[in-house]
Write a structure and sequence with these properties.
Strand content: 15-25%
Helix content: 40-55%
Strand order of the largest sheet: 2-7-1-8-9
Distance between the termini: 13 Å
């Protein structure tokens, strides 16, 4: 089975940017498309950025055992569909999962060989600046994300590899080197 890379870290830390660059640098990697109950943001497409599900459908899929992992985050639900992951790994493609801490812990239980990577901010204050700057959440949502981030940062030591995203070029170089070394075995 192909390698699975779990990449997590607090909201606003730059996971998405780093993963986008990682996929450009290592084209054989594939990004698993997560399911979510949150509404699509402008420009997001169902099945491309996320599988957008309502609460009832999400619950139905949980009951069917359709998720490798699923969790609530800031009042919304997210999960990795088993069929999404198995289809890609069965075809021999290494897969990146961009998930939050609860999901990463669940994947660790069911897939102990998955490579777990935690993206850290240079400081907690930088997270607030990034979250406000991206303009996708209201003030209440930003505060919820920052509260969750505090708990997530306390768990960074659970991860085999940590990357501080202070300087984007340095962070992507470090992430790429680690993933390439893991793929080389």
């Amino acid at each position: 089975m192909a390698r699975v890379f779990v990449i997590t870290g607090p909201s606003g830390v730059g996971k998405g940017t780093l993963i986008k660059l990682l996929l450009e640098r290592i084209p054989e990697l594939e990004l698993s498309v997560s399911a979510t109950t949150r509404a699509a943001r402008p420009g997001e497409e169902d099945g491309v950025h996320y599988h957008f599900l309502d609460e009832a459908e999400f619950e139905k899929r949980i009951a069917e055992g359709a998720f490798v992992e699923h969790a609530g985050y800031s009042g919304r639900r997210y999960g990795t569909l088993r069929e999404e992951l198995e289809r890609r790994t069965a075809a021999g493609h290494p897969v990146v999962l961009e998930i939050e801490l609860q999901g990463a812990r669940q994947v660790r239980q069911v897939m102990p060989d998955a490579e777990q990577i935690f993206i850290m901010p240079p400081s907690p204050e930088s997270l607030r600046t990034r979250l406000v700057g991206r303009g996708t959440d209201d003030a209440e949502q930003i505060e919820k994300r920052l509260q969750v981030a505090e708990e997530e940062l306390a768990a960074a030591g659970e991860f085999g590899h940590r990357v501080v995203n202070d300087d984007l070029d340095k962070a992507i170089d470090e992430l790429e080197a680690h993933v390439r070394a893991t793929l080389a075995g």
